[in-house]
Amino acid sequence: MATASIAIVETPLVNYALRRGDDALILGHRLSEWCGHAPMLEEDMALANMGLDLIGQARELYSYAAQAEGAANTEDTLAYLRDVRQYRNLLLVEQPNGDFARTMLRQLFYSAFADPYWRAMMGSSDPTLAAIAAKSEKESAYHLRHASEWVIRLGDGTEESHRRAQTAIDELWAFTGELFHVDDGDAALIKDGIAIDPERLRGVWSETIATVLSRATLQRPNSDWMQQGGRAGHHSEHLGHLLSELQSLQRSFPGATW
Amino acid sequence: MVSAAVDLDALRQRAWAAAATVVDPEIPVLTIADLGVLRDVTVKDSHVEVAITPTYSGCPAMNMIALEIELALAREGIAGAKITTVLSPAWTTDWMSDDGRRKLKDYGIAPPVSGGGRRALFGEQQVACPQCGSIATTVLSEFGSTSCKALWRCLDCREPFDYFKCH
Ligand SMILES: [Zn+2]
């Protein structure tokens, strides 16, 4: 890596915007990996479209994080010049695509949270976050519907598609607890009405997942053991590989444009 | 003073008219005024500022639209205009003008159906075929050739068509 990483002046608001931006960027990047490889043309376009929505959300959140930080960073330096330990995304979104069922289950778990989350954030006392939320909630509604329909089709499909969907659930389940993670900085923002308490969304998230899994004839795992660490920068080995691809151009040719 | 104010207002109107001619690069029959993307034109100290709002978070057309506005203003002799992006209030398909909806349909794209069930987890929508007008249509994919379109098919005339999604 030819270019040094940047330093971030961390405040609760900067961290908050960065974390949500990281979720959107990393999941958007994962979806973009399907481009040219999806099971059919319509799905190739759908995954690329959703990736684009998420990367667009990331850009807005990074721009706001840079503005809130008030230093020399920009949306680009935040995306391209942070190390893996400086990324604060959910472990869920960095999990590899695996097969199509795994990608759709990851998308369902995330979107079933993101959709009501952005809707609730439209009421944020921070006008920029409220504006970003108003755009994002329109997009997340489509993402949730798309993932739900596929999970039902796969679960209630053939023996093979059912088996793959259930395997994906069993493997990804432990990463869903982190969706509701709150630290002290977040708690202060929640108190000020800038952020919403994710605990408020646990009921609606569980209900969406239960509805879709039941229609898909799939089982929700019994285990309550949850893995976390992404919000503090402790990642699986997968994120480093993803970032080396995402950042390679800017690290090798700093400031390159075309 | 009065004439200066009149001049500024004339400049503002000229700038608006020029910016309003810019078309969406992905749907060239629609101008940014038809779409509701053009939000405001202001003049401060004889500098023109044009506010636009993105249709979708990741819409790749926004950079090109901003550049096209600058060029359109420059052609009108208005140099150095500032283009700003506003996020709030969030763009919605409800802002599309009636004229825009008609042009979209004539172009072969079904216009957005108001209240088109984006919210429902398993939404049912009724979209008329822009070719033959039949409502016997079915969705092929909710994600079409651009972020703003879904791919549909008419069961009567058998033609596939784009539907401008509700946002
Ligand atoms: Zn037809």
Protein architecture, described:
- The complex is a heterodimer of chains A (258) and B (167).
- Chain A has ten helices and no strands.
- With 258 residues, chain A is an all-alpha fold.
- In chain A, helix 5 crosses helix 7.
- The longest helix of chain A has 29 residues.
- The mean pLDDT of chain A is 95.
- With 167 residues, chain B is α/β, with parallel strands linked by helices.
- Chain B has two domains: 90 residues, GMP Synthetase, Chain A, domain 3; 69 residues, no CATH class.
- In chain B, strands 6-9-8-7 form a four-stranded mixed beta sheet. In chain B, strands 3-4-5 form a three-stranded mixed beta sheet.
- Chain B is elongated and about 60 Å long.
- The model of chain B has no long low-confidence stretch (mean pLDDT 88).
- At the A-B interface, helix 2, helix 6 and helix 9 of A face loops of B.
- The complex binds zinc ion.
- Zinc ion (ZN) binds next to loops of chain B.
What's the level 1 CATH class of the largest domain in chain B?
Alpha Beta
Content-based structural category of chain B: alpha/beta
Helix content of chain A: 55-70%
Helical content of chain B, roughly?
25-40%
Strand content of chain B: 25-35%
Per CATH, which architecture of the largest domain in chain B? 2-Layer Sandwich
Ligands in the model, by name, code or SMILES, are: zinc ion
Quickly count the domains of chain A: 1
Q: Let me know the average pLDDT of chain B.
A: 88
Quote the distance from N terminus to C terminus of chain B: 44 Å
What is the CATH topology assignment of the largest domain in chain B?
GMP Synthetase, Chain A, domain 3
Strand order of the largest sheet of chain B: 6-9-8-7
Largest sheet of chain B: 4 strands, mixed
Largest sheet of chain A, described in full? none
The CATH topology annotation of chain A reads as: Ferritin
Radius of gyration based on Cα positions of chain A: 18 Å
The CATH class of chain A is identified as Mainly Alpha
EC number (chain A): 1.14.13.149
Pfam families (chain A): PaaA_PaaC
Protein name (chain A): Ring-1,2-phenylacetyl-CoA epoxidase subunit PaaC
Keywords (chain A): Oxidoreductase
